[in-house]
What we know:
The chain is α/β, with parallel strands linked by helices. It has a single domain (3-12, 23-163), classed as 3-Layer(aba) Sandwich (Rossmann fold), CATH 3.40.50. The protein has helices spanning 28-43, 57-69, 88-96, 113-119, 160-163; strands at residues 3-8, 50-53, 78-79, 104-109, 134-139, 152-158. Strand 2 (50-53), helix 2 (57-69) and strand 3 form a beta-alpha-beta unit. The longest helix is centred in the N-terminal third of the chain and has 16 residues, at 28-43.
Amino acid sequence: MPTLYLIRHAKSSWEQPGLRDINRPLNERGMRDAPRMARFLLDTGAAPDLIVSSPAKRAYSTALYFAETFGIKDEDIQIVPDIYEASASDIMRIVSALPDSAQTVFLFGHNPTLTDVANRFTDTFILNVPTCGIVKIDSTAPDWKGFYDNNARINACFFPKEVL
């Protein structure tokens, strides 16, 4: 059964005001929280079969910290350009196209989209998935094509201020 981890990029830097949004790096807190949240997730027993990331520097950098913690090579991170500036429907389209060989997927992206996606899978409203926040969604569907809100539910939320 598919399990999706929605992971918002860690805290980004705004020190270079003229920098294009897609090129914004992580700030000091982001570089501190990303490896700590990756270690926390590893300690829960999570094990990704696939990591997919937005091409934005802050999302990909966050994915790199997680890949290192989980012993996944950098080149095995799948960059999906459509995650950047995606709508919730775009993310669901990306999820439905994930390979069935990957039962557990970490998807690194952005807000407000990840919060919108998470809210499709819960009866309890999530106001905001914070930076480096993680939402675990389990499905009873046999494959990613069948991963919808009627057969998948949030199993856990891990937010840095609550778990670190």
